[in-house]
Write a structure and sequence with these properties.
This protein has 90 residues and is mostly beta strands. The chain contains one helix and four strands; from the N terminus they run E-E-H-E-E. Strands 2-1-3-4 form a four-stranded antiparallel β-sheet, with helices on one face. The longest helix has 13 residues.
Length: 90
């Protein structure tokens, strides 16, 4: 499986963002509080419904950007020659 991109809307520090990944190893860097961990949590939430607060059925509202009522995570990935898109809302 290869993650191609992650799109975030109203997720923690991101009002809207789309992060594209290249083939091979990708490096995520930035200053404290810029959203590195949020990006990883968003992928786990979208693909597996898992966040740092626990598994499915947990409260995921902490992922929301302050003052927002709903957010969205979209992960595009490819596996075995096919492309997929997973969209999950908070």
């Amino acid at each position: 499986m290869r993650i191609e991109s992650v799109r975030l809307s109203n997720i923690k520090s991101f009002s809207t963002a789309e992060i594209a990944f290249k083939s091979g190893v990708n490096f995520i860097k930035g200053a404290n509080g810029t959203g590195k961990t949020t990006l990883i949590e968003a992928v786990g939430f979208a693909l597996f419904n898992v966040t740092s607060t626990g598994f499915a059925g947990g409260i995921h509202s902490y992922l929301l950007r302050e003052g927002e009522r709903e957010g969205e995570v979209c992960v595009r990935f490819s596996a075995n020659g096919s492309s997929y898109e997973v969209l999950r809302t908070v």
